[in-house]
Structure formats: C-alpha cells, structure tokens
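About this split. The held-out portion is used to measure sequence recovery: a designer receives only the structure tokens and must propose an amino acid at every position. Recovery is the fraction of positions where the proposal matches the reference. Here is one held-out target exactly as it appears in the evaluation file.
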C-alpha cells in the first residue's frame, strides 16, 4: 500500500480517476492512504496519530483537530475523574457500562451513551458541564491526554484487544458508517486490511504504537494508578475482570452485585439496552442504514499465519 501526499495523488489500481484533496487541512499537510483496490483515504497526522478528514469535519467540535487536542490537553481534572483509554473497537462501550454500574452501585443502564463523555466529541464547556463523578473515555493517544489529569494521577483504565479482531470490528464498523451521504467504506475485507496494517499506519499512530506507548508509560511510572485489561479476558471470565475493576475503583461490591453487572453487560443485553433504553444519537447521525452498529461480535476473519507485509502486527499477544 502506498502513502502519498496530494502532490503525488495518482489513479487507483482500477484505473479510475481519483478525487482531488486539499494540500493542507487545519494547517497540516494532507496525506492520502490507499486500500488494496486503490480507494483514497485522506488524513492529517497530529503528534503521530492519524485522523481522517471525514471524521474531523463531521465529529470534531469546531472542525479543527489541532485546536481541539490542545483544548483537551488543557482541561482540568477533578478528584473523582476516571479515564478509559482504548484503541478504537477494543471494548470502550463495554468497559464504560461496567464502570458506570460499579460507581453507581447499581446494575442499571444509564440512558446516556458513552459518547456523552468522550473527549473527541466534546467542547471544553461540555466537558466542564458533565456531572461528577465523570467517566471520561477516549481513543486519543497517551501524549494527547489532559496534562492536569496525568499530573494529578487520576485513575486510568486501559483496555487492549487482539489487533486481528480489532481489524475485523473496524472493517464492519466502517462499512456500517456514513460520512455525510456517503458510506465510509465500501470495499472488501482483504482490501481493507492493506489500509489497516500498512507500515505507514503503524509507524504513525496505529494499534502497535498506541499500545506500546501505554505499556511503556505503565512501566516507567509504576506508582501511577493505571489498570490494564484485556478484551479477551473480560469475555472469558467477566466476573473476575469486573471484580478487578471494582477493586481498582475502590468501590464496595458483593459477589451478587458483580454477577448482576456481568449479566447486564453481556453482549446481547448491552445491544438491546442500546436500542431500547439509550438515546443513541451517534447511530442516528452515522449509521448508513439507521440501524445500531456500535455493538458487534468481532470474530476474527484473520488466521495466525496471515501473510501480509505486516504479519508481525497481526500475531496474537
């Protein structure tokens, strides 16, 4: 897969004429990645992390990713803040619901969705207006997190997931999502893989760098309150992992309460709650067919011996 600036923009593998993109966006040079069929995906790179132009225009407050990240870095932390950090499609909704129930002390769904506390989508005023205790969440990389939150050592929960399953889930997510009137992605899974696992993507802020940065931070700061969880462990033994979270948050719990939270947070129950209880404005805005697309079982379509230029990054941990 090639990564080119707009000056080097060329026709696709199918010989189709490519659309043109601005040379700069938010004061940054625009880069164009191509999937396996030559479909272009313009983006900008901020502090080593790639951001799609379509996502910035449709979801980032003010439409300026540089200014928004600076705003996020300068927000003030509260004593009872908890921040959930995950690479996209790694269980953010799942752990957010678990933490919400544990902090309330009730195995009950909140009518709000986790995007109401997601740093990417909120202005400074909206973040400050959130009621305490705040359960903030983000896909932003470590170096983009609020400075005050890190300096005050507020609790962070970091969830990791096998990148093979992340790729499957992101593919399905992208196929079900629209930007404006257009579907975000319309290619096949094999065509999408070259985009997801490109060396450029990994080097400039993909799954590998995101995860390694958090691992290094935890190792270099052994006294920082950060809990690392694995999606696969939560799936295999939810009660054990939920108990870990309860202990980390220092909230009271019983075996019966943990069992109730685990049952409420089973995949099908969360999906049903999202459809019947929650005000899911994200689905209404982004779903290509109007149906719920945030909850999917990301069963892997990749084999351990997948032969791609970046096989190293698709292996099991």
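Reference sequence for scoring:
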């Amino acid at each position: 897969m090639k990564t080119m600036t707009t000056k080097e923009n060329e026709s696709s593998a199918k010989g189709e004429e490519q659309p043109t993109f601005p040379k700069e966006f938010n004061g940054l040079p625009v880069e164009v990645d191509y999937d396996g069929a030559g479909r272009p995906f313009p983006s900008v790179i901020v502090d080593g992390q790639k951001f799609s132009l379509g996502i910035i225009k449709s979801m980032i407050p003010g439409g300026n990713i540089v200014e928004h990240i600076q705003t996020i870095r300068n927000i003030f932390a509260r004593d009872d803040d908890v921040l959930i950090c995950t690479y996209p499609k790694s269980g953010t909704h799942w752990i957010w619901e678990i933490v919400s129930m544990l902090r309330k002390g009730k195995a009950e769904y909140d009518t709000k969705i986790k995007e109401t506390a997601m740093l990417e989508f909120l202005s400074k005023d909206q973040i400050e207006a959130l009621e305490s205790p705040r359960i903030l969440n983000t896909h932003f990389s470590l170096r983009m997190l609020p400075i005050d939150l890190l300096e005050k050592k507020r609790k962070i929960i970091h969830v990791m997931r096998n990148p093979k399953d992340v790729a499957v889930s992101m593919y399905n997510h992208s196929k079900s999502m629209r930007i404006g009137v257009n579907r975000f992605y319309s290619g096949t899974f094999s065509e999408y893989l070259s985009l997801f696992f490109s060396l450029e993507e990994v080097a400039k802020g993909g799954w590998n760098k995101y995860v390694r940065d958090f691992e290094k931070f935890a190792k270099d700061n052994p006294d920082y309150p950060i809990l690392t969880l694995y999606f696969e462990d939560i799936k295999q033994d939810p009660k054990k992992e939920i108990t870990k979270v309860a202990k980390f948050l220092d909230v009271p719990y019983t075996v019966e309460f943990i069992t109730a939270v685990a049952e409420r947070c089973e995949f099908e129950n969360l999906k049903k709650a999202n459809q019947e209880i929650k005000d899911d404005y994200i689905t209404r805005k982004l779903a290509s067919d109007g149906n719920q697309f945030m909850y999917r079982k990301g069963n892997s379509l990749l084999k351990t011996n997948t032969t791609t230029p970046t096989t190293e990054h698709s292996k099991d941990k």
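Annotator remark: The chain has one domain: 81-314.
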